[in-house]
Write a structure and sequence with these properties.
mainly alpha; Multidrug-efflux Transporter Regulator, Chain: A, Domain 2; three-stranded antiparallel sheet; two-stranded antiparallel sheet; 4% strand
């Protein structure tokens, strides 16, 4: 006599990934682990260490991914709001409208929502003061998060640490058609070490990372920037990768699955910190050109 196995009330991390990828194509197992390492998620673990995601965990993850994608909320802001919701007995915070208060012309790095732009356009450019009897005391200025970098045109958004890009495969002709670059342009990128492929049966194939490089290089070329100018990004990435490798080497030398998983989590965190540092330093370096005078 056989018995049906009891239905599980939780999902594994792989099952969660399959559940979310239609709505969030960029989500990967590494990204979920990184969010957990930042304290935004806290899934239950089995005695053997496997994660167990229940409905509340999945709802929380959806909220995080949606607010990253739609509102560019920093991780710390989301973590604070999630902790407030937990303290109030809620799974996720209630959705709040995103209000952008312009203070002069928007800078290069300032995000202005379409609704805010339409409102600003509909108002007369000459400021109007209310009658003295209706004038209200100014409200205290609230600190705003650092403005986001300008949004790039639609393209595959891939975290180089996630490995999701390597599942794609393009021939040289397909890469040229997808990126809009000529074969000579692709050869120049390859000549400066920016574009690499793998040889199979005499033909070279390129993965999704190569497509991202080609698309980004095509956008640079609109500004007259050539492949030789882009080599500085490769040099910088290699130096940063070497620096991270030195930090993670003690874990990698242990040669056990738990240590390698921890190394992957640490690497995701380090990469996120590096992105934040580069963005902040770039804004500082360009402040004289982006801030209104």
């Amino acid at each position: 006599m056989t018995h049906d196995a009891p239905e599980r009330s939780h999902l594994s991390i792989g099952e969660v990934l399959n559940l979310l990828q239609d709505d969030f194509p960029d989500v990967t197992i590494s990204k979920i682990r990184f969010l957990e390492s930042q304290g935004l998620l806290d899934p239950e673990r089995t005695p053997s260490g496997y994660r167990k995601f229940y409905d509340g965990d999945i709802e929380r993850l959806r909220w995080i991914l949606r607010h990253q994608r739609d509102h560019f909320l920093p991780l710390k802001v989301m973590k604070d709001r999630l902790e407030e919701a937990t303290a109030a007995g809620q799974v996720v915070p209630p959705d709040e409208p995103v209000v952008v208060i312009p203070s002069g012309p928007p800078s290069l790095f300032e995000e202005v929502t379409p609704a805010a732009s339409a409102t600003a356009a509909s108002q007369d450019s000459t400021p109007k003061r209310p009658p003295p009897s209706r004038r209200r005391e100014p409200e205290p200025t609230r600190a705003r998060p650092a403005p986001a970098m300008p949004e790039l045109p639609a393209r595959p958004s891939i975290n180089p640490l996630d490995g999701g890009a390597t599942s794609a495969s393009f021939t040289r002709e397909e890469l040229s058609a997808a990126s809009g670059l000529s074969p000579d342009d692709l050869s120049n990128l390859a000549g400066f070490g920016l574009l690499t492929g793998r040889s199979v049966a005499g033909e070279t194939f390129y993965d999704g990372d190569a497509l991202v490089v080609a698309l980004t290089a095509a956008d640079f070329m609109r500004f007259g920037i050539e492949a030789r100018h882009l080599r500085m990004y490769k040099v910088s990435a290699e130096r940063e990768a070497g620096f991270m490798e030195q930090i993670l080497m003690p874990l990698l030398k242990q040669r056990n699955p738990a240590a390698r998983e921890q190394a992957a989590v640490n690497l995701g965190e380090l990469a996120g910190l590096g992105d934040q540092m580069r963005s902040a330093l770039l804004r500082i370096a360009l402040r004289d050109y982006t801030e209104p005078r």
